[in-house]
Write a structure and sequence with these properties.
Low-confidence stretches: none
Structural class: alpha/beta
Bound molecules: zinc ion
Radius of gyration: 21 Å
Distance between the termini: 36 Å
Number of strands: 18
Helix content: 25-40%
Largest sheet: 8 strands, mixed
Length: 455
Amino acid sequence: MDMVIRNATLVTHKETFRGEIGIQAGKIAKIGERISEGVITIDASGKLIFPGIIDAHTHMETPVKGYVSSDDFSTGTKAAAAGGVTTIIDFTIQAKGQSLKESIEERKRQANGRVYIDYALHCNLTDFNVSFLREIPEIIASGITSFKVFMAYRNEGIMVSNENLKLLLKETRKYGGLVQVHAENGFLLDYLVEKAIQRGNTSPLFHPKTRPNYVEEEAGVRAIVLAEEVGGNLYLVHLSTREAVEAVKWGKERGVKIFAETCPQYLLLTEEVYQWDDASYYITSPPLRSEEDKEALWQGIREGTIDVVATDHCPFTRAQKDGGKDIFFETPNGLPGVETLFPLIYSEGAVKRGLSPNKLVELLAYNPAKIFGLYPRKGAITEGSDADLVIFNPEKEMKIRANELHMNLDFSPYEGLTIKGIPELTISRGEIIYEQGNFPASQGRGKFVPTTPTH
Ligand SMILES: [Zn+2]
């Protein structure tokens, strides 16, 4: 064996058990007892072994309002490795008039040669020229099975119409793909933003006020109804409100094929941040919500209404955020997250709220792998799977400090928060890529992983 991990407590989405893992040629070759020597032998006594975490929602080096998110594919995936993330699913960026296929090739050129971990892609569809439907079968066959649209951002010219959303849901289901929706009603929120501007209400406090809960609820319900109508596969990104959780629950009960995601920021933070001096640093869309919404999201997780926790990692430095200071609609939207995803959800979800470690695997690895077609290559600890593993110390505590994290950023929304449980060693396809502050792997070793249609 190339590597053997001994004295391990393995955590999968359905069980926790003692055993040894033998790794050969980048794959998990054997799980059992007394596996013969490895070239490298790791003693994991007292540690938990998780499958590598999949962050199904990241935006590396992505333009937003004239700024570019501060992590590129290199810094962002290196930081991801430190957080136990072994796969990200990022998004293509479609320029006006650009074919989807070209946008995919362009994004791959940006990532390849720079990523430390493996990556897959969601195909952003922001320019609905006549040919977009024709490209779908070929794109799905090439290993990109999810398509993302925005029900907001009308002024930016990227808002999807109801007709196009319905067409896309119908077309993708034919080939087993799915449609990801940013569910905020663009007409309603643009109206509220314009009214706020007319009244001179431009401080960050008006960011949440111009995106009230019903804006998300209405769009979420509409997407669910359209998915039901055509039998489409729908994935709602970054749920933030109790009403949206109820809508997803309602849809699932009706048998609509819906998956729902929320993010650490909605599970840990509330709108009180918009009262603070550095309020503009917390501008993200949808905005942070009330305590009641936060609790409804945790309940949605416990009940299985919410399937995935991913980050929407889209970091901006203090200087970038300051560029739009006091004018909420000019501040680049987004929060960091890829490096802190796993430890935050472990600490807040498992330690504080009693979720089982198996439930965390479901939310952070198994479900994203199943939904997006990476399973069982990723998201699993089984013989034949990629040897993507995290050795996790459940006892160690850490205080979050932006300057001690590895993201290309001088700000953390969780500054000063003490968390319990941290990833100590990350293995990607059998190679140690992170070990207690060190990064023995080289940039560019990560690969594009095609997803397969599963719906
Ligand atoms: Zn996003």
